[in-house]
Structures are given as C-alpha cells and as structure tokens.
Amino acid sequence: MKRPLLFCALLAAAVSAQAHEIWIERDGAGPVRVYFGEPAQEVLDHGQDEIKRIVKPDLFGAKDKAGALTREGDHLSAPLKDSGDAWLADDSVFAPWKGEDGRYESVSYYARAGRQDTQGRLAFELVPRASQGQDFTLQFRNKPLADAKVTVINADKWTKEVQSDAKGQVTLPKLAAGRYIVVASHKEPVDKKIGDQQVAVMHHITTLTFKAE
User: Which residues form the signal peptide (predicted)?
Assistant: First the structure.
C-alpha cells in the first residue's frame, strides 16, 4: 500500500531536520558564510538545494547585525561590520512535522563562528571558557547541559565524539591545524503553538566553527 504523499513529505522533513546542521564560517573581519547540510558527509548533499531554506536567520556579531544575505554557490554570504566572532539563530527552516507518536515536533538551529568571545549569545551554544581555548561550556538557556554528546568534524570528514561532564564542560582533543565544526543537539519537551500546530518536542541543534593553528 502506498503511503500518503503528505506522510512521506513529513517523514522526509523529520529526517532532514534532525540530520542537517547550519554552520557559519568567518575569516577575520570578512563576511559571514552560511552553510546547511551534513558536514560529516563525504560529499555534501545539495540535491534538494537545501540552502534555499535559510531565508531570514538572526545573524549578528558582538555589536552589529549582519547585512543582507546573498547566494554564492553552495552557501550564503552576509557582510558584518564587527570583526571577530559571529552568531546565528533560525527556528523557521522547517515547518513542524508529525513524529512517530503522532505529536508534532519542530527544530531550532544555532551556529557560532570563532572562539574569541567568552560570552554566550544563543539559547544553545558551546561557549569558550577562555579566549581561543580548547575548553567550553555547553549552555542551554544560560545553564550548563550535562552528559550531552558533542561531535568534532574536520575538513577531511574525520570525526571525534566527546561528552559534556556534570557541569556541562567539554574539553576538545588536541587538534591539528585546520578548520573544525563542533556539533551538539538537545531534545526538549514543550507545549507551544508554532503556526497552526501544537508542538510537543523541540530539537535544538548548535554548531561551532573555528580554525586551529
């Protein structure tokens, strides 16, 4: 028996939402580059042209908002007056979908580029304990998140899993030179209206990118 098209679309959205990440990159005082996909994949899947889902993210630096987004191949780019770290939050990438238990779920994405600033600015974020250091606190709504899996990914798709301790603290392994993406996720029970749906589960996915010297 063929499944209804709506069911298949919702299932595809659920799988895509939980498997994908938004990450941002920035070099010095240059523009912020916004990517969307699965960074651990050998080849990024752009078959669905998923970057078009990123429409109105909250993208900012320590003092200013980023300028308008423009498309540049497989990513988006936005100017930012501030130098240093940049942050992004976006909860509108996917519409709520029906989970396996019949309740609706949704997803919020967060991303940070750089580890200079020791202040957290997102609802879910890996915050450096010292500027440019290897030690972080995984914070969810300004509180440490304990016992959470954190995945480190480099440009060659090498991955390493670590875990936050009882105080939400994470120490990354010694890293060779290069750019890294660090990913963490958290599932939160909620009772909130998003659009026309009453949502029971929120998936929070955060990334941090930086260059190791």
Answer: 1-19
